[in-house]
Amino acid sequence: MGDVLAVVEQRGGQPRGVANEVVAAARLVAEGLGGATHALALGGDGLAGAVGSLASYGADRILVGEGAGLARFQPDAHAEVVSRVAGAGYDAVVFCATAQGKDLAPRVAARLGVPLATDVTGIDVTSGGLQVIRPVYAGKAFARVGFRASPALFSIRPNVFPPRQVPGAGEVQSVDASHAEPAARLIEFREAGSGTLDVAEATIVVSGGRGMKDPENWHLLEDLRDAIGDGAGMGASRAVVDAGWRPHAEQVGQTGKTVAPKLYVAVGISGAIQHLAGMRTAGTIVAINKDADAPIFQVADYGVVGDLFEVLPRLTGAIRELKAGG
Fold this sequence. Notes:
Layout: E1 4-7, E2 10-11, E3 14-15, H1 17-33, E4 37-43, E5 61-66, H2 75-86, E6 92-96, H3 99-112, E7 116-120, E8 122-126, E9 129-136, E10 141-146, E11 152-156, E12 171-174, E13 204-208, H4 219-228, E14 232-236, H5 238-242, E15 263-267, H6 273-276, E16 284-289, E17 302-305, H7 308-325
Parallel strand pairs: 1-4, 1-6, 4-5, 5-12, 6-11, 7-11, 13-14, 13-15, 15-16, 16-17
Antiparallel strand pairs: 2-3, 8-9, 9-10
Helix pairs in contact: 2-3, 4-7
């Protein structure tokens, strides 16, 4: 049998959205290997009552480790439990390449003494075994990677593997987490400001680049986001973040966050391959740029060639009028 373990993330005692993606990816591997899909969730007391939804995305068994030392992510404590469970006969272990996953997965790989494939965007299970596809050279090429060691460890890029409604048995089983005591004590955890929507979870993303010319002009994008309303988040290109105009949490691209919203509005963004790697799976892409030859137009569904300082206010006004008339 080829049982597969999905390591899921929780926040505030509830599974994060990426948890469903990891379970779905693990299910894809398990189906190819002829095994079962298990999900592992670690957190504070009461977590077992909140993870049942993972069964809807293919979890045959949900392993839950609860304890005060696991309520918030502590890399050493989490790595101890995950490596112990992962080393108990699984053929593959799947993480998500979030900030937490990028911290946890290498620690587990080191404890188990096996390689780790990161930021996977494709999965292929054939008669030759499991292979994954991951970008290399800043997304300019893709490598097909096979595994000789067991278990095969890899992390998936967020928002690439859409959750599939493939119900599993969802049997909840506790695991021993009594030895999961963090070596460091977390003094404070600061959430993002109220009303700030994580760009990776937004259904609509308004994103700006160097074409905005100055951070003081960002209010034009914020006005557009506010006019759109609920579900709209703010994004930015790497050049803008490197210049200190916007926080890193808003960066979209190869070295930022991967997004897959229903609508992505790229304003003043040329469309470097590193940026395209983080947003090209969006449902609909709208590009606004004065350069008709900008690479962003090659992936855009709709393009506006013009001065963004003229286009944005008119677009924002039109959206407000449309919503007021509805």
